[in-house]
Specification:
Blueprint: H1 2-22, H2 25-42, H3 50-80, H4 82-87, H5 93-122, H6 130-153, H7 158-175, H8 187-193, H9 197-209, H10 216-242
Helix pairs in contact: 1-5, 2-3, 3-5, 3-6, 3-7, 3-9, 5-6, 6-9, 6-10, 9-10
Length: about 240
Amino acid sequence: MRLRDELEGIYAILLKDLKAYYLKPPNISWGILFPIVLALAFTLRNPRGLRDLAPGLVAMAALFGTTSMEAIVVTFEKRVGALERLYMAPLTYTSILLAKVLGGAVFGGFISAVMTLLCVTLLGMRISHPLLYVGGLALSLIALSSLGALIAFSVREVFEAQTLSNYFRFPMIFLCGVFIPVGSLPLPLRVVAYMLPLTYTVELLRASTLSLSTCPLLDLAILILFSAVFLLLTHRAMGRAYG
């Protein structure tokens, strides 16, 4: 019964967050338009390269879909006391954390699905390995959403969460293979790139659409490791703040 209560609590928090915060037209449109506009700015000189950029667009949509709203949701609820009321419920910190992470992952998954549809219909992207594509994207959403939760639980104000998120997001966009292949980067930047989760998201999506040579099992394992580390650090941050 205890496990069932925890699962019901996770579902209730997830549903509440999706209805109250995530599934709003401005949030959805921004999550889709921002990657498209940024990609167009980089392909003005080479319009034919936009098709090869498609996997990176989906990766960018996953990154911004998971981290942007989650930073706002968590920090807003901390500020107004809504999160403290959740801690008073008969739920463990782990369940509350999982609910918050799943909220970001579900929203990021929705944005990524829309971006995938646009890339397939408008850019001619072909998904050669559907299971690898879906599995890699799902693990990426959990890892990136866990990163968003870690950032949100580490600060007090919404603007602090957004600023700190950008310190991670924009370097990932330019270093993780979205626009420039990681292999063509100078060695120091290449080392940094392989320390960032989005690199492995881009590799998996490219492997499943462009059939580029890579090691998908290693990429999947590293994304699982990122998720575990981010969740553990976030759980500790919650314990320090409310324990």
